[in-house]
Specification:
The structure is a single chain. By secondary structure, this protein is of the alpha+beta class. It folds into 4 domains: 139 residues, no CATH class; 111 residues, GAF domain (Beta-Lactamase, 2-Layer Sandwich); 73 residues, Helix Hairpins; 144 residues, Histidine kinase-like ATPase, C-terminal domain (Heat Shock Protein 90). Helix content is 57%, strand content 15%. The protein contains 14 helices and 12 strands. Strands 2-1-5-4-3 form a 5-stranded antiparallel sheet. Strand 1 and strand 2 form a beta hairpin. Helix 3 packs antiparallel against helix 4.
């Protein structure tokens, strides 16, 4: 049965006298009208053909107004009246001429066929009207969701739109996002069996008693929430369509929010990179002057031990600040989209040997190089590579146990070069192993350990990526290994 007929049926059923009493009342009125018409036609001396035409018209009107069942009642009563008043012998329910049986049977058949066709036409018209109304509502809802304000809760706005456009008493909307943060829409005063419960149940249903429809919101096959419509006559197709539009609207809002957040993060990163670059360049000049002055003072032979100690401290701290400034400049350069590598043919073994040789005696004595005697020379930006590997060695020296050996291993294939820096020390927790390569992030061990800026590993990561490689870490209770890989690029054009 179509939704309009269901609505009429529901309205009748909710009347105090009930639908059954209404149908009986209509039937009684139909019998009275048919009898009255028959009596008037008899007094006007209608013949059988004339009264048959009148009754046929009456049956069609009853069918259009009250349906096929009432039309059938009218047609049967019409046959009874024609038999009693117009078919000899009159005032008896007998038929003397067999031809009159054919006339009465033909009338009843025609009446039933015409009333059936009329009823189908009425049903079709009702269905067309329902479809038109459904299409108009869905079109209006689809247009309305385009105006949803991203600064306000999407679920609340969507619930209000559905309530207004679909004409339901209340709407409950619950959405679960990737971060498991729910967004709850409007909950009616007589709240029961809400959207959260519907989502947990995981099935669509309709409660005829409470006029409540529940639908699971899905993107493809993935459930993302639930929708509950309270106080409306059930239309399964409309409910499914509204649920689909709601799911699309929620996903659209999420996509816009992600896009805006990504744009804001990009702008923030660009601003932070510009600030770091400006600060680093601003520090470079005074630091160079401090280092030059401290080196000149150390060259003077006539200072007291205390003066020499203070000048040495100044020189060491200035050198440390100069290294930090260099890292900031490198980070700012690597954050730029236009990274131009100045490649030159380089032996990674020789580069690492030079790095080890440049370390202080206390660190150099603990470093052990494991590398093939004849390595593959590849085209890399040597200063960038040197700075990145220096970060890894410096990081291992900071967090290695005192006196333990730091092993630097070079592993080369035809396609890739991997440098592995291994030290014995506190483990890096699994949840931190990807984040430690972010700028300024310092793990738990680093926070309570040696001082640092959190820039070194991010420089190593950006350098590796610029050379077509990557960095990662493996850590156990005793050993921590940092892996630095680059693509074995050997181009014909150097520089």
């Amino acid at each position: 049965m179509n939704p309009i007929m269901e609505s009429v049926k529901g309205a009748i059923a909710r009347r105090p006298d009930g639908g059954k009493h209404v149908r009986v009342s209509v039937s009684l009125w139909t019998l009275l009208v048919v009898s009255a018409i028959g009596a008037v036609a008899y007094m006007l001396h209608f013949n059988l053909s004339a009264i048959g035409s009148v009754y046929l018209m009456l049956v069609v009107l009853v069918s259009l107004r009250w349906g096929f069942a009432q039309a059938t009642v009218a047609s049967v009563m019409a046959v009874v009246c024609m038999n009693y008043l117009f078919v000899p012998p009159i005032f008896e329910f007998q038929v003397a001429d067999p031809e009159n049986w054919i006339s009465l049977g033909t009338f009843e058949t025609a009446a039933l066929v015409v009333s059936g066709l009329s009823h189908k036409v009425l049903q079709h018209a009702a269905q067309v009207e329902v479809q038109r109304d459904r299409t108009a509502k869905l079109y209006e809802l689809s247009r309305a969701i385009l105006l949803i304000d991203g600064r306000i809760s999407t679920a609340e706005q969507l619930a209000a739109l559905i309530r207004e456009v679909v004409h339901v008493r209340d709407v409950d909307l619950w959405v679960t996002y990737d971060d498991s943060s729910p967004s709850t829409g409007v909950q009616p005063a007589d709240y029961s069996g809400g959207a959260l419960e519907a989502f947990r149940a995981g099935a669509d249903d309709h409660d005829e008693t409470s006029h409540r429809t529940r639908r699971i919101l899905r993107l493809g096959t993935t459930p993302i929430g639930a929708l509950v419509l309270h106080g409306w006559e059930h239309d399964s197709l409309l409910a499914d369509a509204v649920a689909s539009i709601a799911a699309v609207a929620i996903e659209r809002a999420r996509s816009i929010q992600k896009e805006n957040r990504a744009a804001a993060e990009r702008n923030t990163e660009q601003l932070r990179t510009a600030v770091l670059d400006g600060l680093a360049h601003g520090f470079k000049t005074p630091l160079t002057a401090i280092q030059t002055a401290s080196s000149g003072l150390l060259a003077i032979d006539h200072m007291t031990p205390i003066q020499t100690e203070l000048v040495t401290l100044i020189d060491e701290q200035a050198t440390m600040l100069a290294r930090m400034t260099t890292r900031l400049l490198q980070t700012a350069a690597l954050e730029s989209r236009d990274i131009h590598l100045r490649r030159s043919r380089t032996s990674i073994r020789s580069l690492v040997e030079d790095l080890i040789g440049a370390q202080d005696d206390s660190i150099r004595s603990r470093l052990k190089l494991v590398a093939p005697s004849e390595g593959i020379s590849i085209d890399v930006d040597a200063p960038m590579m040197e700075s990145a590997l220096l970060q890894l060695i410096d990081n291992a020296a900071k967090y290695s146990r005192v006196g333990e050996t730091i092993t630097v291993t070079i592993d080369q294939t035809e396609e890739e070069t991997i440098v592995i820096v291994e030290n014995v020390g506190p483990p890096i927790q699994a949840e931190e192993r990807s984040r430690i390569f972010e700028r300024f992030y310092r793990g738990e061990a680093a926070i309570h350990g040696p001082s640092g800026t959190g820039l070194g590993l991010s420089v190593a990561k950006k350098t590796a990526e610029a050379h077509g490689g990557r960095v990662w870490v493996e850590s156990t209770e005793e050993l921590t290994r940092f892996f630095f890989s680059v693509e074995n690029y050997r181009g014909t054009k150097i520089g």
